[in-house]
Amino acid sequence: MLGLGSNLGDRRAHLQAAVDALGQHGVRVLRSSHTYDTEPVGLILDQPEFLNACVEIETEQGPEELLDSCKAVEGEVGRAAGGPRHGPRVIDVDLLLLGGLEYSSPRLRLPHEQVSTRRFVLVPLLELEPDLRLPGGELLADSLAALGGAQQVTVAGPPLAI
Description:
By secondary structure, this protein is of the alpha+beta class.
């Protein structure tokens, strides 16, 4: 599963461009959640709202190669290297889960470290797979319920085209 986000320019067009570009990198997008308007979280809160979605993928790539593909897609869609952590961005393509794989390297951790603490990730993920569990068995619906009312997430539009 990948998480997509954008808060600059034509946000939906950027998400769609990322979905379209993934196929050129050996990543088949099977389906998309709806898109969601979400408030910024993290280190920089004074920035435009994000448009987020999650996509279910299929690939033969391992975690590091898939991360490289995600980074290449970000560059192709217009994300400049660098910039402040959690700052405004044209596109963000995050590797959230890769089946039931647990993986850790200096560049990547699977499942994504914040997958169970971010409403803007959990809502679209659970739309795609309501009974989704982390490799250790944690039910992500329970993680979402534990967040209470924090982090505003509202449906913005239909799923991205596959």
